[in-house]
Fold this protein.
Amino acid sequence: MKIFIIDLSICNGCYCCQIACKDEHVGNDWTPYAKPQPLTGHFWFKMVEKERGSYPKVKVSYIPTLCNHCDEAPCIKSCQYKAIYKRPDGLVIIDPLKCTGCRDCIYACPYGSIYFNETLMIAQKCTGCAHLLDEGEKEPRCVDACPTGALKFCEEEEAKDLLKQAGFLSPEFSFTKPRVYYLHLELLKPFIAGDVYDPEEDECIKGAKAKLIDEVSGETLETITDEFGDFWFKGLEPNKSFTLRIEKEGHFPIEIKSIKTEKDVVINDIKMYKKR
């Protein structure tokens, strides 16, 4: 069966996937796969922008999202009218001719991937462009439109090695057995960053050794400040507590305790004084 694989490390947030989905489905009737998508309000394929950190160390993570076409799809189980079904290729379809607009599937989907069409009074979502696949196309419009190759649509068997490195965007819902996998999820994990300077010289301190120590396990990460005095520790586990130590020959060391990774942490203007 088919799966989607999304590589977060090469997605540049160009929105081509989202635009291609709109272009394919807005105003186009692909019954029995889907009725036309409304011009506004629906994002069957949605690019989520996540702003992280704080000035001056701000990052934006781009996260392409769509229906997970789950093997244990709650939407299918919730539909008493049998309007939702799973195809042999793995795609989950809401039959627009059978949907009664009861919205049970919308409430059942833990991912928020199903929308309600107020004009047609039916539930709608990503179809994986099943109408195109059945006409002989090899991939959905979103995948075809991706200029960086961040989106892949392939047979699960073909991607066995790649899937060893992949995970789910929402692992707490993995019981639904989603068929959308993500590579480089560590890019969404918290970071701790900061900058170090000498207040007497009013100069950035390059080459200082920054150590980040897990206060429970004792595991230590190390990096060196760059020419701007900046340091970054990326891909940290959430809800951990760390101690930051900064050392530089000829300077008094710095230690900051109890830094929590409940979110990204930016520590600006760390003062490091020279020894006299």
Observations:
- The mean pLDDT is 97.
- The radius of gyration is 24 Å.
